[in-house]
Task: structure prediction
Amino acid sequence: MTAVSLEHSTVPADTGEVTLLIARRVDPGYEADFELWAKGILESAASFAGHLGYGLFRSSGGDAPLAIYPISVLGGLFLMPHLTALPLLLNSLITAAVFNVLMTYAAMPAVSRLLRGWLTT
Result:
């Protein structure tokens, strides 16, 4: 079976066009089946009007969160001391909001640009 190529020369997140991102973990030995399935789904989705494109990023196989760790450390260092006096639910809400914004608009675009060559090979 030949390898399925689903890569693009640009990462959609770089231009702000991503509206959905789905992560899947493929069991060992099923990679080729997954690639074939993904190719069919992605090509089918591309046939709809307004579709902005797609990309398939492959994991290194590890589960280490690349961008989450530094944000967590810095958040704990700078943000948490100011939130300790707040009620737990409000503290959690603010923490989740800040971390989500940082991950979505700062960390992931930067990591995508940094690892573009690796992510699209």
